[in-house]
Amino acid sequence: MSPEASKAYESSESSDRFMTEKQQEEAEWESINVLLMTHGLKALSLVGRTDLKDLIIFDKQSSQRMRENFKTLVEDTARQQNMIRELIETNQQLKNELQLEQRRAADQEQRANDLEQIMESVKSKIGELEDESLNRVCQQQTKIKNLQKEHTALQAKCQRYKKKQMEQQETIASLQKNIYRLTQEEEERIVTQNRVFAYLCKRVPHSVLDRQ
């Protein structure tokens, strides 16, 4: 093979390898866009290198790091949102259980009040039916004590549910703060990176950028 033919073959092979790498990079950016749009974010615009005056060019390593950072941020945000959704569902379940226990406690309290009224009625008849009435009073007092104990236990259970609910709400608030902080940090990092690249692009002649 002549030297001219060898150079042409190497040039063609290098061009094919460049196009393959470019297509792979574009496919990775498209995958990032799918992730962004899946989570309600705007997609990034991919443009051809026809006019570079309004663009900032990243090297391959920086472009790869940016794609990895985007993917990590979106995945972390999705995990945090899933945790928040699970906590909200758990919190709603606790609210429902608390309401049920409160209704049970109210029913028990009403029953206790009714039994107290019965006891007062029985006491008024003690003079007429001493033995029988005394026995009934003892039975009613035992029932009242048992109901009062059950009522006290239900109240304690309600307090525990309330405490657990507050803890869940604090956990949700903490996770929301973490998501906000991570988002702010990522936005600040991207702004700083863009400023650095803009500064470098201004210092490097356009001929060097074109060769890259």
Tell me about this structure.
This protein is mainly alpha-helical and about 210 residues long. The protein is about 85% helix and about 0% strand. It is built from 4 helices and no strands. The chain has helices spanning about 5-40, 60-125, 130-205, 205-210. Helix 1 (about 5-40) packs parallel to helix 2 and helix 2 runs antiparallel to helix 3 (about 130-205). The longest helix has about 70 residues, at about 130-205. It is rod-shaped and about 115 Å long. The two termini are about 30 Å apart. The model has no long low-confidence stretch (mean pLDDT about 80).
What are the salient characteristics of this protein?
single chain, 212 residues, mainly alpha, 4 helices, 0% strand, rod-shaped
What is the helix fraction of residues, given as a range? over 70%
> What is the CA–CA distance across the termini?
30 Å
Low-pLDDT runs of 5+ residues are none
**What structural class results from the helix and strand content?**
mainly alpha
Counted beta strands:
0
> Using only CA atoms, what is the Rg?
37 Å
- Shape verdict: rod-shaped
Mean pLDDT: 78
Major β-sheet profile: none
β-sheet strand percentage: under 5%
List the total number of helices. Answer: 4
- Give the ordered list of helices and strands: HHHH
How are the SSEs placed, and which strands pair?
Blueprint: H1 3-38, H2 60-123, H3 130-203, H4 206-211
Helix pairs in contact: 1-2, 2-3
